[in-house]
Amino acid sequence: MSRRLTDEERRERQKKRDAKAIEKELNPQVDMHGVKILRILREEAPKNPDIKYNSEYFAKRLDVSNVTIMRSIKKLKSNNVLKQKQVHGSYVIDENFDEEKFSEHCSDEIKKNIALIASLGGVLKQYKNTPLYESVVDLVYFLQPEIVKSDKIFTSGRVVVSPQMEYDINTQNWEKVYDALQKNHKLRFRYTKPYTNNEAQRIVWPFQLILDNGSVYLFAYSEYADAVLLYDLNYMADVVVLNKEFKLPKDYDINNYSGGGRLGAYKGDKIEKYKIRFTGYAKEWMKNHKLADDQTFKEDEESTTVLFTSSQFDKVLELILSWGRQAEPLAPARLVKRWKEEVLAMAEKVKD
To answer: What mean pLDDT is predicted for residues 272-294?
Structure first.
C-alpha cells in the first residue's frame, strides 16, 4: 500500500510542476520548420487574409510532408504559441500570450540577447533582399526560441538601430557568386559601371562577399586586370559559374589589403601615413572612434589631431569631406592637394 504524501511533499511537488510550467512558457520548443511557420504567420498572414494558412499550405510552401508540418505545429501548440482557427483549419499566433508576464520572468541574459537581436534586425534590414537575411533571421529565431512569442521583437526593441538607407541587391548574382565561393570555382561576368569596358569579359577567382553599409561586393582576383579588386554585385551582368577550380591563397582576406585602415570595403596598394586635424564637435567624436589599427592622438584646447597609417585613400578623403570645415588634412601631400581641389570645386558651384 502506497504511503500518503505529507503536506510538505505535496507543496514541493507543486513547486517543481510550477517551475517546469514557467520553463516551458519561457522556452518554447521550436524546430526549424516551426520557425518558418511562425515567420510566415507573423509577417505575411496579416497582409493576406484570404490565404488558408493550414497544414497543407505549409507543407507545400516549405516543400516537406504534412506529417513533418503537423509535428512542428504540435510543438508550437503545446507551448501556447499557436492556435487553430475553425475556418479552413488555418493557424494563427495565439493573441492571449501574456507578454508582461513573460518579461517579468525573463532572465537578465535573455533580455540582453533580445536587445541584441532587435539591434541585429535593424542592421539586417539593409540586406533584406539577400538570402543572408532570411537565413540569419531563421537562425536567430531558432537559437533564441523565447522571441517567437514577441511579435514586436524586430521592430520595437529598446535597443535598436537607427533608420537605415534601403538598398536593392541583385539576388541572382548573390546566389551564383555564393555558389562559386562554396566550390572555389571561377566566375565569368561583364562589369557594367559607366567607367568600365562593358563588353569585356571578366574571369575572376572569388575570395569573399563583403557587406558594407548596405552594399554587397565581391572581393576577387581578376585575370582580366591581374589584380585583386572589389566588384559591386549590382553591376555584374551575365554571371556564369565556370567548371574551373582555383586554389584559395592564404592571404585572400580583404583585411590584408587595408593597410590597417578601418573605413569599410576598400582595397589599396599604397600604405600611407595620415595626419588629420579635427575641430568643433568632430574633435571629441574622433577620440571615441578608431580609424586604423595604429591610430594615435595629439590634443590641444581647440583640436584633436589624428595620426594613423592606411591604404584606404579614397575612404579617408570621403571621411574628411563629410566633416566639412571641422576636418583639415595635414598629410600626406596628395591628400591635402585632392582635398583642396574638392573644396574649390564645391565653392565654384556655390558661386553659380
So the answer is: 94
Place of cell 591604404: 311
Name the nearest CA neighbour of 217 among 201, 234, 238, 198. 234
**Shortest CA distance to 209 belongs to which of 247, 236, 246?**
236
Q: Hey, what's the cell of 20?
A: 517546469
Mean of the per-residue pLDDT values for the chain?
A: 81
pTM for the whole thing?
Answer: 0.65
Q: Where are the alpha helices (DSSP H) in 222-332?
A: 280-285, 313-322
Q: Say how far apart CA 135 and CA 141 lie, in whole Å.
A: 10
Quote the Cα angle for 222-225-230, to 5°: 55
CA 327 to chain centre: 30
Residue with cell 540569419: 136
* CB of 166 closer than 8 Å to CB of 214: yes
Query: What mean pLDDT is predicted for residues 86-91?
Result: 72
Q: Averaged over 186-194, what is the pLDDT?
A: 92
Packing angle between helix 55-62 and helix 32-43, nearest 10 degrees? Answer: 110
Q: What pLDDT does 339 receive?
A: 97
In order, the DSSP letters of 33-78 are: HHHHHHHHHHHTGGG-TTS--SHHHHHHHHTS-HHHHHHHHHHHHH
According to DSSP, the residues that pair with 236 across neighbouring strands are 191
